[in-house]
Amino acid sequence: MRFAEVVSTSAAVAETRSRLAKVAALSELLRQLDDPREVEAATAFLVGLPRQGKVGAGWRTLVSIEVPAAAEPDLSILDVDDLLTQVAATSGKGSTQRRTELLTAALARATAPEQDFLLRLLTGELRQGALEGVMTDAVAAAFDVPVAEVRRAFMLSGRLHTTAEQARSGGAAALAAFGLEVGRPIRPMLASPAESLESALAELGEVTVEYKLDGARIQVHRNGSEVHVYTRTLREITASVPELVEQVRGLPCESVVLDGETLALNDDGRPRPFQETMSRFGATSSRELLLHPYYFDCLHLDGDDLLDLPLRDRLAALERVAGPFRIPGAVEPDAERAAEIASAAHAAGHEGVMVKALDSVYAAGRRGKSWQKVKPVHTLDLVVLAAEWGHGRRRGYLSNLHLGARDPDGGPPVMVGKTFKGLTDELLAWQTKAFQEIAVDAGEWVVHVRPEIVVEIELDGVQVSPRYPGGVALRFARVLRYRPDKEVSEADTIDQVRALLPG
């Protein structure tokens, strides 16, 4: 199939706000594909994540290529997939020049819309995580399989394009064949915000209440002496966290998969700043700053997959294998004890508590209601859309942030407010440099950026406002921290922002 069909489908999806229309357009394209590679490549293109991952072609290389657009479509889906494979495989001396030559030749065969799509694909501008949910529904519709089976296979494989091809070639039976593989990370289960501790306890029934640590999510896999450690985005960081590897090797088991958090602590046991923990994740070797693991779930133990067991049973397995490293909390506390845990977590410098239903299975990659987070203040994870040049003391720095909430139906983020509060001199310097590297429109006053950076915002609440397209605006918003551990697909949605409206 021609690549132009993918490009026109992407445009159609972007132009409608109807989730049903998006699913219909995507599923119709998928149904027309017979070649397994076409299915995988097209699926990957449409969610903005090439099968090859990052191909090594930077923004500067891409914007330096100027070639006239072709008058008629010529490229096929497989042509583009082959191109990305060649570019990704290019390394060593002269690799930048070789990548430029490959890309120039391909862009010369592309029409103007195809050139635009390719540049946005390669720079990450198409990477709208919300589209994964829409595409999951489209895969189910295209190949007549239950959407729950597609979601589960995606959770276990971590690759939506692989899931799509299996749905096409083998249907529900092929999807059911996906299992948890020790050493291959799975997408983590996510929590939804709770109105209050009392409401979470009332809604969920029998629960566990645990500290919500101000740390970084980790998933550890052990098979014999082989250990792998992954972030919440499934990036492997094993080489930079040897103390965690050694700790996992010491657990009384042969194989295990654990979900948890890690953070650096001060001498008094209080958490160090989140950015210090995250600095270890970017390291290529061990550092003096030691990380402490705290586990809250066990997904596999000694040959048995536990994903579909209730949390109560998974916690029993966790206690057997990693009891000393369990996150602080209590199982089935009464309301008074739950309040004590929340107070203790806050006093210890943590974010709040997690309330989890003991009968819940592990539903990865979705914000269900069976896990709820309770914080003493309102916070939202939002997407940076743009920043304004500062004045006075902030002259020369990008300061006032334009903030967007995620569109759950795969559209662009929806702007909900601005803020310049909470920005330290260090953050101002960092974001001025970082934003200019991902700028898509740099005006004299405002620099618009690719929507790929997540920032955690503290706020007093939200109010109805016609000023922004979502119909709501943040009240007294301030920056708490940037979240390099989170993808845009994990940002809060416009629906979650609207849920904060009073009464």
Strands, count: 19
Helices and strands: which structural class? alpha+beta
List the total number of helices.
17
Radius of gyration: 23 Å
Q: Uncertain runs with pLDDT below 50, 5 residues or more?
A: none
Largest sheet: 7 strands, antiparallel
- Percent of residues in helices: 25-40%
Share in β-strands: 15-25%
Q: End-to-end distance, in Å?
A: 52 Å
Rounded mean pLDDT score: 89
Q: What's the shape?
A: globular
Structure description:
The chain is an alpha+beta fold. The protein has helices at 3-15, 19-31, 36-46, 59-63, 77-89, 95-108, 112-123, 130-143, 147-157, 160-176, 197-204, 242-249, 274-281, 311-322, 335-347, 425-437, 494-498; strands at 190-193, 207-212, 216-223, 226-231, 255-263, 292-301, 304-305, 329-331, 352-357, 367-374, 378-389, 398-405, 414-419, 439-442, 446-449, 454-459, 461-464, 472-475, 478-482. Strands 11, 12, 13, 14, 15, 16 and 19 form a seven-stranded antiparallel beta sheet that branches. A five-stranded mixed beta sheet has the order 1-10-9-2-8. The protein starts with a helix and ends in a 5-residue tail after the last helix.
At a glance:
The protein is α+β, with helices and mostly antiparallel strands and 503 residues long. It has helices spanning 3-15, 19-31, 36-46, 59-63, 77-89, 95-108, 112-123, 130-143, 147-157, 160-176, 197-204, 242-249, 274-281, 311-322, 335-347, 425-437, 494-498; strands at residues 190-193, 207-212, 216-223, 226-231, 255-263, 292-301, 304-305, 329-331, 352-357, 367-374, 378-389, 398-405, 414-419, 439-442, 446-449, 454-459, 461-464, 472-475, 478-482.
